[in-house]
Write a structure and sequence with these properties.
heterodimer, A: 104 residues, 5 helices, disordered N terminus, B: 419 residues, alpha/beta, FAD/NAD(P)-binding domain, four-stranded parallel sheet, 25 strands, globular
Chain lengths: 104, 419
């Protein structure tokens, strides 16, 4: 199975997303509905020998595209198609923006 | 056990936090009981989301032994030490570890009593005690019987005992697994266990047989398991459903006999996975109902029986979500976020949660079930159209890929929770 998400994210996108996500001083943000479940597989830290791609700090548009293609079945997957079907476009956009704003 | 030093440390931590409850920012004291996937996640997530909180994790064991992948230990594919995780990583996030047991909860006075009699005050309490064995629910099965017929449903010494029994068994012996009625911890677990024991028997004790006596007529990922058994272990595993007389009604540990309404099976090794209930502290806190499990509302997982007490993980009734490590971790993160909101006087938003459970049928053969959940009519309900199991028909390396995802998931989640 191939993972286009393994493409490196653009540092500028990360910085932009971080500044947009600013606001009241909080140590961390729990994220939009659904986001916190993702980190059970998609680690915040680097995990040696993991075949599951990290999504923290990836471009939001890449994450959105992947989730939509998983959902439609256009991009083959094992578990992600079944998970993506639980989210609408707006929810996917919010989750993607949140992950894009996390440290890569 | 609590030393005087830990007690003083706890008291100091609690008194520092006491005056700040009324502030607009979330602050206050949260006590978390139980240092498994649910509790350890809740504790460190609370601290990460709101460093001003005083978060105390009450857990008597210095080391946590994880159940996921413990079936691999039975099949000599892993060692028990690879299942074990300490709490240094949790403490580094600023969580105060109280290495002692919670013996009582005063829900109206908002205190948790510890083994040494000291009381820990809280503004919000999270209980994540996991399961306890419902001793007495299966005639003949008590704590002494579990030393002869291990449950191995709490990973650790029981897992090692069952592995030793399998290794000491003569080739040609009968291994019996008794699987309980719903609900119970890890719904696919008994069948993954049967699979990996069969994998090991086929190599080392090929004349042996494995019999699953079930108190159910259907089980998680059933067709995937049964297809794989026919392919990988033909004639080795026999599954007896409830309607075929599979319900175990009694056991005799002296003779390793497993009794159903229709037969008495003399086992060489008997693995009795018994009926379960929420961990004892949940009963003591008054958050468990007559079923033995804990009803909660579906947004912050606050008990519907005792306000101010949240319950996550295997001990809670979570609607459509199964009792899994993934689910406990997901629930704990949502619960922690909601508690931060509640302590700041804000209303938590409706969450969405995911569960994914991998099972290994062989070391390189993985299958999965997933679900997506949201609050609906007061319970966590499956989002229609989402979730489901791996396909029955696959091409190429699909099963091998899922086996790799399984081990990657375990590394990831244990790093997130304990790393």
């Amino acid at each position: 199975m191939r993972h286009r998400l393994l493409l490196p994210a653009l540092a500028s996108a990360l910085l932009l997303a971080s500044s947009l996500a600013g606001g009241p001083v909080r140590a961390a943000d729990a994220g939009p509905p659904g986001a916190s479940s993702c980190t059970g597989c998609h680690a915040a830290k680097r995990i040696p020998d993991s075949v599951i791609p990290r999504i923290a700090g990836r471009k939001a548009s890449d994450i959105v595209q992947f989730m939509r293609e998983y959902r439609s079945g256009a991009w083959p997957s094992s578990v992600m198609g079944r998970i993506a079907k639980g989210f609408d476009d707006q929810q996917i956009d919010a989750i993607a923006a949140w992950f894009a704003a996390q440290p890569e | 056990m609590a030393t005087r030093r830990t007690f003083l440390k706890l008291t100091a931590a609690a008194s520092l936090a006491a005056p700040s409850i009324a502030s607009a920012q979330a602050s206050g004291r949260v006590v978390v009981v139980g240092g498994g996937f649910g509790g350890a996640t809740a504790a460190r997530t609370l601290k990460v989301l709101e460093p001003k909180l005083t978060v105390t994790l009450v857990e008597p064991n210095p080391v946590f032994t994880a159940c996921p992948f413990s079936n691999n230990v039975l099949a000599a594919l892993r060692e028990i030490s690879q299942q074990q995780f300490g709490y240094d990583g949790v403490q580094k996030t600023g969580v105060v570890l109280a290495q002692t047991a919670a013996t009582a909860v005063d829900a109206s006075g908002k205190t948790v009593t510890l083994t040494d009699g000291s009381k820990l005050p809280y503004d919000r309490l999270v209980l994540s005690p996991g399961i306890d064995i419902n001793w007495g629910a299966l005639p003949g099965y008590d704590e002494a019987a579990a030393e002869k017929m291990p449950h191995a449903w709490k990973a650790g010494a029981q897992t090692v005992l069952l592995r030793q029994q399998l290794q000491a068994m003569d080739d040609g012996g009968l291994v019996v697994i008794s699987s309980p009625a719903n609900p119970f911890r890890c719904p696919p677990g008994p069948y993954e266990r049967a699979s990996l024991i069969a994998y090991w028997l086929k190599i080392w004790k090929p004349k042996s047989k494995l019999l699953i006596l079930d108190s159910k007529d259907a089980f998680s990922k059933q067709r995937l398991f049964q297809n794989a058994w026919a392919q990988l272990y033909p004639g080795l595993i026999e599954w007896v459903s409830l309607s075929q007389g599979g319900k175990v009604t009694a056991v005799d540990p002296a003779t390793l006999t497993v009794v159903t309404d229709f037969a008495r099976h003399k086992a060489a090794v008997a693995n009795i996975i018994p009926p379960q209930k929420a961990g004892t502290i949940a009963q003591k806190a008054g958050v468990a109902d007559r079923t033995g499990w804990c009803p909660v509302e579906p947004v912050a997982f606050e008990s519907t029986l005792q306000p101010g007490i949240h319950v996550v993980g295997d001990s809670a009734i979570m609607g459509g979500m199964p009792k899994s490590a993934f689910a406990a971790n997901a629930q704990a993160k949502v619960c922690a976020g909601a508690i931060v909101e509640l302590l700041a006087g804000r209303k938590p938003v409706d969450p969405i949660l995911i569960n994914t459970c991998y099972s290994l049928v062989a070391p390189d053969y993985g299958i999965s079930v997933a679900g997506v959940y949201r609050p609906d009519k007061g319970v966590l309900a499956d989002i229609p159209g989402a979730g489901g199991t791996s396909p029955l028909e696959v091409v190429g390396g699909f099963r091998g890929q899922e086996a790799l995802f399984a081990s990657s998931w375990f590394k990831t989640i244990t790093t997130e929770v304990f790393g």
